[in-house]
Design goal:
Helices cover about 30% and strands about 5% of the residues. It is α/β, with parallel strands linked by helices. It has a six-stranded mixed sheet with strand order 2-1-3-6-4-5, with helices on both faces.
Length: about 500
């Protein structure tokens, strides 16, 4: 809700209407930005406190988003029918949005990160001094009628001026861009939150009419409505609001220029490992790496082939299994060649139904078993009595592989003494695992592949299935060879 006793003005007489979506991206490095020092502005102590939250720029190239959590401190905002305070809802969603945007490669600034009161004028001053590209204010709505429900987005529209509340010249000129941003965010939030569409609202509220960059105010849902109030109290729904807003922003403004590399790794824990693998030619340069997507069998084998050179091992190799024939691996599949090599070397076999499932995610246990074979590690003669992980018994089909890789420091558990063998391995995890492989861990081409460890039929797919035992460097097949999206990473505990 935007009008309250602590604001210098209220939102009275603000006309509302639904508008047709506007096309056209928002240009980065907006000409309406300014630096307060250049025009003699003296920042108040509240503004300076807010500036401390901005942090150091991630990159001169990353798009920067100012996220404003409405109300705060002595200004609680609307009080919901369940007693929920708007200021608390706003801050939580704003912080979730901050995290979501950072993961996507954006630089993010916040007007507040805690429960403090910041005036409307100071919020605009903080934004103007931050050199941000977009301003997004997060609010929850309220209405005298408890029957009103839904999501709406406010922006300043030069076609609906209010004489009592004049806008800055910059915001007047920015109407088309603010409108496009508002429509994009509204559409994206409605898609994930599934609440009634209350439309776009041309508004004279201070924070969207007095700035210098495209600005919107998101009214997520109505605290005055019982159903909406429960939605706003739910942590999962708050995350959906944050994700929807981020989707709308990304549809209008990319986090980095099209020429940027691995934009989604800006602050990711696996960034350095991925970059080193790229320099070695194990992963390919791309705009996005998708670090938290699950790695597929085809992607994992491709990375292992680049790391261990299956082709060199086949030279003079006389124990080849021949050429495989799998129902789901047509000659046109982008990874068919690497599957043929892995099959010939005995690293993979396939399932009893004559499938190999190339695009299926790999589990951590499967990845460990595959690594054991590719690294030519000899399976111990004696049974494993303890793996060191509470969820991997000694008689598990992947026990020896997990133990051997753990002893070499290539894989770790996830938490509480567990390995999570059935959890899908992410691209970031695979990248980290492969980055740990030392030259001494790579057998000479002349080495003879070790016999495949026996796999219990009831336990899991046979070795032919790519295992995923630990974070593995996931490299994405090049766009020229891989149809669809590039190999995806899948979020998983940092190895």
């Amino acid at each position: 809700m935007i009008g309250n006793k602590n604001d210098s003005e209220t939102n009275r007489d603000i006309r509302r209407r639904t508008v047709v979506p506007t096309s056209g991206p928002i240009a980065r490095k907006n000409p309406f930005r300014f630096h307060p020092q250049s025009i003699g502005i003296t920042l108040t102590s509240a503004v300076m406190a807010g500036m401390l939250l901005l942090g150091t720029p991630l990159s001169a190239e990353a798009a920067k988003i100012m996220v404003d959590a409405g109300h705060g401190g002595s200004d609680p905002g609307a009080i919901g029918v369940t007693g929920l305070k708007e200021k608390e809802v706003n801050l939580d969603i704003a912080q979730k949005l901050q995290s979501e945007l950072i993961l996507r490669g954006y630089e993010v600034a916040m007007t507040r990160q805690d429960d403090r009161y910041i005036s409307l004028a100071d919020r605009v001053a903080i934004t103007n001094a931050s050199n941000s590209d977009l301003f997004v204010s997060i609010h929850a709505n309220s209405n005298p009628s408890s029957a009103i429900s839904g999501t709406q987005v406010l922006y300043y529209d030069q076609d609906y001026p209010q004489s009592d509340y004049p806008a800055s010249d910059a915001m007047t000129a920015l109407t088309p861009k603010s409108k496009a941003l508002a429509q994009s965010v509204l559409s994206s939030v409605l898609a994930v939150a599934k609440l009634p569409n209350k439309g776009l609202v041309p508004s004279a509220v201070y924070v969207v009419r007095m700035g210098q960059i495209p600005s919107i105010l998101v009214e997520t849902a109505f605290l005055s409505n019982w159903s909406d109030s429960y939605v706003l109290a739910d942590n999962t729904m708050r995350q959906k609001f944050a994700s929807g807003i981020a989707d709308g922003i990304q549809a209008i403004l990319a986090p980095t220029p099209e020429t940027a590399e691995f934009a989604d790794l800006v602050r990711h824990w696996a960034k350095d490992a991925v970059i080193r693998l790229k320099d070695k030619g194990i992963v390919e340069s791309a705009k996005y790496f998708n670090p938290d997507r699950s790695i597929t069998r085809a992607e994992l084998l491709t990375m292992l082939n680049r790391q261990f050179d299956f082709g060199a091992r086949l030279v003079g190799y006389t124990k080849s299994n021949g050429t495989p024939s799998f129902k789901d691996l047509p000659a046109t599949h982008w990874a068919v060649d690497v599957f043929n090599k892995a099959y010939a070397l005995g690293y993979v076999d396939g399932y009893p139904d004559r499938t190999i499932r190339p695009d299926q995610p790999v589990t951590r246990a499967e990845a460990a078993l595959l690594l054991q074979r590719v690294m030519l590690l000899v399976k111990p003669d004696k049974p494993v009595t303890s793996t060191g992980y509470t969820d991997v018994p000694g008689d598990s089909w992947a026990a020896s592989a997990i133990v051997q890789l753990s002893q070499r420091g290539l894989v770790n558990g996830v938490a509480d003494g567990k390995f999570a063998p059935d959890k899908s391995m992410t691209r970031a995890e695979m990248a980290t695992l492969l980055d740990r492989v030392k030259p001494a861990d790579i057998p000479k081409p002349s080495a003879t592949p070790t016999p495949k460890p026996s796999v219990s039929p009831s336990a899991t797919p046979s070795p032919s299935v790519t295992p995923s035992a630990t974070p593995l460097p996931t490299q994405t097949p090049s766009p020229s060879t891989t149809p669809g999206s590039s190999p995806a990473p899948s979020a998983t505990p940092k190895p």
